[in-house]
Design goal:
Elements lengths: L1 H9 L1 H8 L2 H8 L4 H28 L3 H28 L11 H16 L2 H25 L7 H8 L1 H20 L2 H27 L6
Amino acid sequence: MKQAQRFWDTIAVLFNEILHHPFNRELSQGTLSEEKFLFYLQQDALYLLDYGKALSLIAARSETPRRMCDFIRFASGIFTVEESMHGTFFAEYSIQAPSRVKSPACFAYTNFLLATASLRSYEEAIAAVLPCFWVYRELGLAIHARSVSGNPYQKWIDTYAGDEFGEATETAIEALEETITSATPTTQRRMEEAFVYSTRLEWLFWDSAYTMEPWKP
């Protein structure tokens, strides 16, 4: 995983900013307001629908049965998370009709992923969708390690710190490593750019949830 690790090293500072963002710091302490968490959760539900589409597009463009099956499985898993975790929290907080309006950050992120998966190279598409796996796994593990007892958001934390999500992340990293190996230097540079852009958008997504970002005007 030497090449993939190089990508991760590129966004190390960005990840540190995500890890120590007030949203995630307060999430680990169990002090994050319900209002902000529900804003995040509803935006995440909208995000995951389009993320699942991006993963499906990559599956359709895959040239090996193995990778096709991997990305189909990823897309299917997205909707399992949507139904289980989100459904549990929505029921707990009596949310009958989740928001259908994307925040500016959610809109920007999902459109970047869909445009990249549709119009850019297969290699760039894989690089663009990987941060959602990798960042969430590392974030989930870090928050799980410092989460307080009785944290009201423990189910969310456990999901992303769990073995199942960790295994999916490793498979996605392997897919990136595989494509880097055969990519030209130009394509490798574009892959790294896509990886960085997605990580920046990850930070924006957390910040948007913490500020409950509205559209202006």
